[in-house]
Amino acid sequence: MSRPTPPVALTIAGTDSGAGAGVGADLKAFAAQGVHGTFAVTVVTAQNTVEVRDAHPIPTAVLGSQIDAVTADLPVAATKTGLLWGADALRTVADRLDRLGRLVVDPVLVNSKRERIQPTEMDALYRTLLFPTATVLTPNVAEAQLLTGRDIHTSADAATAASALQDAGVEHVVVTGLLEDGQAIDAWAGPDGVELLAAPTVDTRNIHGTGCSFAATIAARLAHGDPADVAIPTAKDAIAGAIAASARWELGAGHGPIDHFWRN
Ligand code: PXL
């Protein structure tokens, strides 16, 4: 029997050939929430659980035409942006904000070693072109440090940084990935103040793509029509469950993927 039409979400992100992070993770996160996932690729990476070997940027004209093709035909209710490769890719997205539905911006500025992988001019472009339209912003600790110029060591620092980033015109900012007292803490600044979302840390190497998946799950819930203050804690629980479920998986010699479908 045919089931109801699912909502549609779009991810604008890079690919990870190991399918731990990027577009592959986002599509799984969308599917786990019962959302039809679409995608526009910014950069193709040759990557596994251990390393990124190569990166081939997609011409911005082709990035734009992917977004145009999807949005011309499918009812995109929410979009997540991930790795945008260079200032022109960011401008290509910014030119199309009116067609993206509710927006989650995951500003990917550093690699897993916390080294910068995008030019510094991107920081200001994110702030002026994308943040004001975003419903939710999800920098990790390293990205929040770059975007605010403040050091983040404690959950209190993360909360301060999240509040500071609201000044760019975003309603909800979640600074992710702070480890403190055996808890994985996200500092969430919303319209009513700051809240800390905590989950027990899990002893596992399989954490590749957690940031991508968290942001994509928020976008999926927004596509369903959830308000952001429901979507954000729902996504935190979904990803905490996914990390716990894949803790003992043995996929690859490095940081393996998480179990998006742990509830299925
Ligand atoms: O998690 C950041 C990220 C985003 N996008 C792509 C990635 C990664 C990390 O590996 O590969 C494509």
Describe what this molecule looks like in 3D.
This protein is α/β, with parallel strands linked by helices. The protein has one domain: UDP-N-acetylmuramoyl-L-alanine:D-glutamate ligase (3-Layer(aba) Sandwich). Helix content is 36%, strand content 24%. The protein contains 8 helices and 9 strands. The protein has helices at 22-32, 60-73, 87-94, 121-130, 141-148, 155-166, 210-223, 228-245; strands at 8-16, 36-47, 52-57, 76-81, 102-105, 136-137, 172-180, 183-190, 193-200. The model has no long low-confidence stretch (mean pLDDT 96). The structure holds 3-hydroxy-5-(hydroxymethyl)-2-methylisonicotinaldehyde. 3-hydroxy-5-(hydroxymethyl)-2-methylisonicotinaldehyde binds at residues 13-16, 21-22, 45, 47, 82-83, 108, 209, 211-212.
Give me some keywords for this one:
9-stranded mixed beta sheet, binds 3-hydroxy-5-(hydroxymethyl)-2-methylisonicotinaldehyde, alpha/beta, 264 residues, UDP-N-acetylmuramoyl-L-alanine:D-glutamate ligase, 9 strands
Ligands and ions found: 3-hydroxy-5-(hydroxymethyl)-2-methylisonicotinaldehyde
Strand residue percentage? 15-25%
| Cα-based radius of gyration, to the nearest Å | 17 Å
CATH fold name: UDP-N-acetylmuramoyl-L-alanine:D-glutamate ligase
Structural class by helix and strand composition: alpha/beta
Low-confidence stretches: none
Summed up, the helix count is 8
CATH hierarchy, class: Alpha Beta
What profile does the largest beta sheet have? 9 strands, mixed
Gross CATH architecture: 3-Layer(aba) Sandwich
CATH superfamily: Ribokinase
Work out the number of β strands. Answer: 9
Mean pLDDT: 96
The run of helices and strands is: EHEEHEHEHEHHEEEHH
The helix content, as a percent range, equals 25-40%
What strand order characterises the main sheet? Answer: 3-2-1-4-5-6-7-8-9
Terminal Cα separation, in Å?
20 Å
**Outline:** globular
Domain tally: 1
